[in-house]
């Protein structure tokens, strides 16, 4: 009567452990979250992932798009061993694969941004048997001109670094110039001193010779 109890309990415990392991081993997606780009430019939509299972030919990557002003979700890109760009729709001839599954990279590049590209881009990676996990998302804002953001801080930092390098180079050149000038002045003074000493010595010799002749 009580014989089947322990095996059932063991199976239940094993199932719970496997379920916990499965949920803990889900694919994790990493994206930038929010991006801002200028109309007409190209943009790399970065998506990286981590998976407990080895990456193989079963891995698939799916990119979709939800417009900011609403409407149905639209297909953007699909990858499975080879890239499969869209053959119709707004993203036709505008999306290329820029990922590397072996490096856990599932990124794409979107060409010639338009204002109606504003919206949310989702990146989903499945690597059987690791197929669960959250979908990564990127909120894109296409603007006429870029606002004061990270790109300006980066430009400012690069400009300051270049200016600092120029100042350092100028200071080094000036220091070397003044050092050379001081060495030349010292050498000139030494030559003057030697010349005066030689002149004095010659005069003393002339005097001594004159005295000897008079004697």
Q: Which SSEs are present, and which pair or pack?
A:
Elements: H1 5-24, E1 28-31, E2 33-38, E3 43-45, E4 47-50, E5 60-67, E6 74-80, E7 82-84, E8 95-97, E9 108-110, E10 119-126, E11 136-143, H2 150-214
Parallel strand pairs: 2-11
Antiparallel strand pairs: 1-4, 3-9, 5-6, 5-10, 6-7, 8-9, 10-11
Mean pLDDT: 83
User: What about the largest sheet?
Assistant: 6 strands, mixed
What value does the Rg take, in angstroms? 39 Å
What is the assembly state of the chains in this entry? single chain
Globally, the shape reads rod-shaped
Ends: how far apart?
151 Å
Overview of this structure, please?
- This protein is α+β, with helices and mostly antiparallel strands and 215 residues long.
- Helix content is 40%, strand content 27%.
- It contains 2 helices and 11 strands, in the order H-E-E-E-E-E-E-E-E-E-E-E-H.
- It has helices at 5-24, 150-214, and strands at residues 28-31, 33-38, 43-45, 47-50, 60-67, 74-80, 82-84, 95-97, 108-110, 119-126, 136-143.
- The longest helix is centred in the C-terminal third of the chain and has 65 residues, at 150-214.
- It starts with a helix and ends with a helix.
């Amino acid at each position: 009567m009580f014989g089947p109890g322990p095996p059932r309990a063991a199976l239940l415990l094993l199932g719970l452990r496997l379920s916990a392991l499965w949920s803990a081993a889900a694919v994790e997606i990493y994206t930038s979250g929010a991006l801002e780009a200028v109309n007409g430019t190209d943009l790399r939509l970065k998506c990286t992932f981590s998976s407990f299972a080895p990456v193989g030919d079963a891995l698939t990557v799916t990119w979709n798009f939800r417009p900011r002003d609403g409407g149905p979700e639209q297909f953007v890109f699909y990858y499975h061993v080879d890239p499969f760009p869209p053959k119709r729709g707004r993203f036709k001839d505008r999306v290329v694969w820029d990922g590397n599954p072996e490096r856990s990279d599932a990124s794409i590049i979107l060409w010639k941004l338009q204002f109606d590209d504003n919206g949310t881009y989702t990146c989903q990676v499945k690597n059987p048997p690791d197929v669960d996990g959250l979908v990564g998302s990127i909120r894109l804002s296409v603007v006429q001109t870029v606002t004061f953001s990270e790109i300006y801080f980066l430009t400012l930092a690069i400009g300051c670094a270049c200016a600092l390098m120029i100042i350092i180079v100028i200071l080094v050149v000036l220091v070397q110039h003044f050092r050379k000038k001081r060495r030349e002045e010292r050498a000139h003074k030494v030559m003057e001193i030697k010349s005066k000493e030689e002149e004095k010595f010659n005069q003393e010799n002339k005097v001594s010779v004159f005295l000897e002749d008079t004697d």
